[in-house]
Amino acid sequence: MAKATCSVCGATVETRHLVNPQKMEEGLVRLIEKDHPEWDAKRGVCPKCREQYRAKKFLGYLEDEFQKISEMEKNLVSKIARRGRVSKEVNEEYEGKMTLGDHVADRVAQFGGSWTFIILFAGVLLTWMFINSLPLLLHRPFDPYPFILLNLVLSTLAAIQAPIIMMSQNRQSAKDRLHAEHDYEVNLMAEMEIRDLHDKLDSLRYKQWHELWQMLQRQLEVMEMMQKCMAALPQTAVGLVGNGPDAQGNDARGG
Predict the structure, then answer these.
(1) What is the DSSP string of 121-157?
(2) pLDDT in tens, 167-179
(3) Is residue 193 part of a domain?
(4) In terms of pTM, does the model score above 0.85?
């Protein structure tokens, strides 16, 4: 396989992988010319340099709008330049990092916030108070009115359950932040791709108008040359050329 050197970095790559500068976006060409003033924009550019300057162009988009770019945005721009995938399954990725205690806390919080827990807990409380309120059932109630032991049990349960529920809520908040960051990455990637597509369309339109203008110039030059040639011919030759077959047909009919 034939190989050639990149006109920007000088790396040796296969010829079929080189990108023709004439087919590159105007923004990339301007960035390369800015970093390499001696670049003649005639020889091919390797894919690595093209991705590097695409990433630089996207960073320029963000730097024009934001004073400071985060590390996440830089990683996102590098993915866009490499045509990488940004979308991912956040829930599966987060649940894969959860420990056994995290799963237990989520189950406890899920059960503690359900109607099943409320009904069962209400049943236990009513049974406790009913048994200790009727002297006929128990000769000596284990927790007589005002149910001090029941208050201790409820306080202990609340003290244990509250931190577990807060742990679950904190994990849910972290998961929501991951979802928000992922949505931001997807939206930012879509915005960058749309802006890049607009730049490509503008560049293509500029090239088409330039080609049409050159074609028009060539046609005008050809017409001017034809006018000069016609003016240089004798008048009789111009008449013959102007009449052409019509004049010959008329002569034949007249004869």
Answers:
(1) HHHHHHHHHHHHH-TTT-SS-SS-TTTHHHHHHHHHH
(2) 888 888 888 888 8
(3) no
(4) no
**Is residue 162 a part of any domain in this protein?**
yes
Which residues constitute the domain of residue 206? 201-232
| Phi then psi dihedrals of residue 84, to 5 deg | -80, 170
CA distance 9 to 107: 57
64, 34 contact by CB (below 8 A) = no
Long-range contact list for 74-77, CB < 8 A, 24+ apart? 76/185, 76/188, 76/189, 77/192
> How does 197-222 read in b/e, with b if 16+ C-beta sit within 10 Å?
eebeeebeeeeeeeeeeeeeeeeeee
Express each pLDDT in 115-150 by its tens digit: 998 999 999 999 888 888 776 555 677 888 888 899
In sequence order, the 6+-apart residues with CB closer than 8 A to the CB of 63 are: 69
Please, which residues bridge with residue 3 across strands? Answer: 14
Q: Residues 59, 104: one domain?
A: no
Considering the domain architecture, whether residues 104 and 149 belong to the same structural domain is answered as: yes
Take residue 172 and report the two structure tokens written for it. Answer: 């849910």
Q: Which of 89, 106, 109 is nearest to 178 (CA)?
A: 89
